[in-house]
Amino acid sequence: MTDKTNDPVAMWQKMVGEMEKGFNSFANQAMSSPEFSQAMNRAGGVAAGAQKQLGELMEKYLVSMNLPSRDQVTGLAERLQAIEGQIGEIKWMLSQMAARSGVSQGSDTALRPPRTKRPPSEGGEQT
């Protein structure tokens, strides 16, 4: 077996472990200070403001290109979903009405008008 004092992997692991401990203690001290929390709050506020401005610019760009925004597409999807739900309810009510009246749902002949026009005769003339 190799000696632990001369093992380069063990020395590397020990060095990385010590570096991690040092970095963790430094980061904990930095994060516990009020200045750090104030700086993070400012950075978060700046990021939120930038995101809001970008959203407004994108909205203006999409309007100028005559394209819908994300909110508009979401609104359309919600309206379409509501319409599909209403159509489903109408279909259900129609099937219930048809079942009560005794009309078979598979045949369309009851809904078609009577055929009054006759095909041409063998002679080629219509009467």
Word description of this protein:
- With 127 residues, the protein is mainly α.
- It is 69% helix and 0% strand.
- The radius of gyration is 38 Å and the shape is elongated.
- The termini are far apart.
Low-confidence stretches: none
Average per-residue pLDDT, rounded, comes to: 84
Summarize the main sheet: none
Q: Output the number of helix runs.
A: 3
The total of beta strands comes to 0
Keywords:
127 residues, mainly alpha, 0% strand, elongated, Poly(R)-hydroxyalkanoic acid synthase subunit (PHA_synth_III_E)
Quick gist of this model?
This protein is mainly alpha-helical and 127 residues long. The chain has helices spanning 8-32, 34-64, 70-101.
Write the layout of secondary structure elements.
Blueprint: H1 8-32, H2 34-64, H3 70-101
